[in-house]
Amino acid sequence: MALRLVADFDLGKDVLPWLRAPRAEAGAAGAGGGGADVLENNYESLHVLNVERNGNIIYTYKGDKGHIFFGLYDCKTRQNEHLYTFEKDLQVVSCSVNSERTLLAASLAQSTKEGRRNELQPGSKCLTLLVEIHPINNVKVLKAVDSYIWVQFLYPYVESHPLSENHLLLISEEKYIEKYHIQVTQEDGNRVVIKNSGHLSRDRIAEDFVWAQWDMSEQRLYYIDLKKSRSILKCIQFYADESFKLMFEAPLDISLSDSGFKLVNFGCDCRQGQEKLSKHLTLCVFTNHTGSLCVCYSPKCASVEQITYSVFYIHKGHSKTFTAALGSAGTHVTKGITFLNLDYYVAVYLPGHFFHLLNIQHPDLICHSLFQAGNNEMIDMLPHSPLQSLSGCLVLDCCSGKLYRALLNQSYLLWFLWNTCLDCEKMAALHCVLSCGRGLRVLEGQIIQWVSENVSACHSFDLIQEFIIASSYWSVYPETSNVDKLLPYSSVLTWNTDIPGITLVTEDIELPLMKVHTFKGYWEKLNSNLEYVKYTKPHLHYNNSVVRREWHNLISEEKTGKRRSTAYVRNILDDAIKVISNLEARNLEPRLTPLLQEEDKHQRLLMGLMVSELRDHLLRHLQGVEKKKIEQMVLDYVSKLLDLICRILETIWRKHNLHSSVLHFKGHGGAAEFAVFHVMTRILEATDSLFLPLPPGFHTLHTILGVHCLPLHNLLHYIDSGLLLLTETAVIRLMKDLDNTKKNEKLKFSIIGRLPPLIGQKICRLWDHPMSSNIISRNHVTQLLQNYKKQPWNSVIDKSSFRVEFLPLNYFIEILTDIESSNQALYAAQGHDNVDAEFVEEAALKHTTMLLGL
User: Fold this and answer.
1) Helices (DSSP H) in 381-517: which residue ranges?
2) Sign of CA dihedral 628, 634, 639, 644
3) 223 with 133: CB under 8 angstroms?
4) Which residues form the Gamma-secretase-activating protein C-terminal domain (predicted)?
5) Residue 665 φ then ψ, to 5°
6) Is it the case that residue 827 has pLDDT exceeding 60?
């Protein structure tokens, strides 16, 4: 299963053995003394009541006489503690304990069992108590009303010293929320008592709401009230200095007018059955540290054929409404839909029907979210009982009394990558795996193995492109959250293919109205996201279009002999050197492939230009981040791109067990070399369309394998179409490695004819062959005669100075000699000292002899 639930707490394992164990202090503590008998007869009464911000878990059970016992499990020490016993047969609605464990608040209702006498005052439905428990002392009645009450202590962010004042939220079924201020003092040593218990001050926090959710980790209260039948989501942030603020108001296009009253995460309500849940709406709010804000909503299920749920990506300014097919028409939905917070993802599942991992950082394309449908074993591995998604990735199963930590299952997702056939599932699974982030290099190695064996398996997108872009993104994203708006997340910009089993409708939504003007922490990031949606058109994701234009300009200038400022080019090449040094520093193992070992100035220029442009892009848009940190981030990002390419090649090289003998032009390629050549060609295609740099040495190795594997006409076609790029290193090695057989001469001529003039001349000087001399001579004559102006010449030519009596040649050679003598210093400086008129004469005669067959 793509989701893995790791149990952090289990009532049966962490509490029950402690309760069954004989304890001398049990009677004194009010536990009844017969713990084992109590639990044997009343095991079903043991259940979780609440999970506090510090992770401590409050639970309750009943004794034989119906007395209510409250206990606490400390998640840090993994020890249990008895808190209080209430000697009446009542049902616990809600319970909370303060951070110092000196006060306990509990809300109790009349037991629903038949034959039980009424333990409450006439006319009272619910009794809300505040108890001093350090030591057990006074009990104060906060409410005795004809409606249910829920209680929740606020927890400060700093717990280093005892607080003189505690704060308690009371949430009433009559649709109001109050905050009580409880001052405490110490008496007789460590005894904690409530000051002025008869006059506790309180504030009215909210009223006339229909839904509320508590975020215990971040100490936030979300609630919805109805204004003119419109649902308005509001959020109150509680601070350690006792203050609280209304942070925002956000209109939601959902109908709650006839939904009744619902609370989320105010303790554990195990009385909600699955049948009841399936007939009521589900609504919850999820956030994460990057400033995301999602509202997940599923209306009442009215159809047996499909189910609808919506996610409001408030931080992105749009919502998506999904409709999932439920299979056969006779399928009966007996369970409610569940939403779980998984940090970068939200999981939506309906046991026995479907599982949907929604990407909340990049929700624009449906292919970045993983949808699995069907009544299969993998989907049924999740608990079928109701789950509460608490803060962070904590999940509470109220029925079993287990607290889980929900994680993406890396091993399953990798298995899924290898076995799924659909492109959309490959895309989604790839991003899910990379977002896990744990042991990223090992994880990447496993993905690279899959990529290298499936380079042509995807038809909707380029697998190599997607892996390189996505993995590079995740390698730097955790360092600065705003990078997600500036770096590309995917190589795919649009997706028009349907996802089997699900349809969706995307709509723009109104952005929330922020009610404060200064922001810190999460609120600063959320506000930044909202400002980006509001004012940034088009989006700011980096691309290499500027690099492409500038690189082509530099290469064109090089071909024509023009030069930019030496300092400008030197700075670009220095950036490339930093990237390679950064890359080599991270690689601790020797490379099998001969990459990063040659100059390859063109790739170094491309590398340096990308560093320069990306650095400028991030400096423009990343406010408040140090320049040094941005520069290192850029080096890491470009290094990562190159490293991934090197590792793909290393993997395929190792798989086919290629040796260093492959690096010579002699010989023919086998199946192994052709497989590596194919992967390198796909890498070149992938990087070329995105205009990404390649490791120096890549083109040389690609050319060597191309000569080994391709017939001459195919090889030349690859060169002419840009799928093989000739480097100076590769051509020099070809000239030296291959002898001058007829077949090799044809190859060499074809290669030289496709080289840029400057490199072609250099290569010709290294090849001792009549045709090479002919080419050199032609180039030399062309340069000499470019600026030639005809001068009057003597009609008499001294024939004794020529070896052959052929007047046209003699006349031509004398002209060249005269030009050379007048420009001797210039041509010597340009390296033409070994090529002169005599060399041209000899080459011309040899070429004529060849043409005449002499």
Assistant:
1) 410-419, 423-436, 440-453, 463-476
2) positive
3) no
4) 642-749
5) -80, -15
6) no
Instruction: Give the containing element (helix H, strand E) for 848.
Output: helix 837-852
Can you tell me the distance from the alpha carbon of 30 to that of 754, in angstroms, rounded to the nearest whole number?
95
pLDDT above 70: percentage of residues in the chain: 79
d(CA 645, CA 188): 71
Side-chain-side CA neighbours of residue 572 (13 Å): 20
User: What's the longest Cα–Cα distance across the chain?
Assistant: 141
Distance between CA 334 and CA 616 in Å, rounded? 56
Residues across the chain: 854
Q: Encode pLDDT of 526-583 as tens digits.
A: 999 999 999 877 778 888 888 989 888 888 877 776 767 788 889 999 999 999 999 8
pLDDT exceeds 90 at position 360: yes
Q: What is the pLDDT of residues 618-654, one digit of tens each?
A: 999 888 889 999 999 999 999 999 999 999 999 999 8
What is the number of alpha carbons within 13 Å of residue 203 lying toward its C-beta?
A: 13
Does 376 score more than 50 pLDDT?
yes
Residue showing tokens 């394309």: 365
Contacts of 200 (CB under 8 A, 6+ apart): 142, 180, 181, 182, 194
By three-state DSSP, how is residue 162 classified? coil
| Helices and strands, counts by H and E, the chain | 24, 32
Q: How far apart are CA 653 and CA 651, in angstroms?
A: 5
Torsion of Cα atoms, 650 then 651 then 656 then 662, to 10°: -10
Asked if 556 and 612 count as a contact pair (C-beta separation under 8 A), the reply is no
CB 835 within 8 A of CB 761: no
* Contact status, residue 504 vs residue 313, Cβ threshold 8 Å: no
595 phi, psi to nearest 5 deg: -105, 160
Q: Note whether 51 and 396 are within 8 A (CB).
A: yes
How far is Cα 351 from Cα 336, in angstroms, rounded to an integer?
8
Give the C-alpha separation, 170 to 150, whole Å: 6
Tell me the CA end-to-end span of the chain in Å, nearest whole number: 80
Long-range contacts of 765-768 (CB under 8 A, 24+ apart): 765/834, 766/732, 766/735, 766/736, 767/735
pLDDT at 25: 46
Query: Looking at the predicted structure, is the pLDDT value of residue 73 above 90?
Result: yes
d(CA 233, CA 286) in angstroms, rounded, equals 13
1 and 412 Cβ atoms separated by less than 8 Å: yes
Supply 684's token pair.
């070149």
Per DSSP bridges, beta strands 318-325 and 502-508 are: antiparallel
* Contact predicate 222/274, CB 8 Å: no
Q: Say which residue the tokens 């460590």 belong to.
A: 190
pLDDT band for 843, please (50, 70, 90 cuts).
low
Q: Which residue has the tokens 């699900």?
A: 502
In the predicted structure, residue 189 carries a pLDDT above the cut 80: no
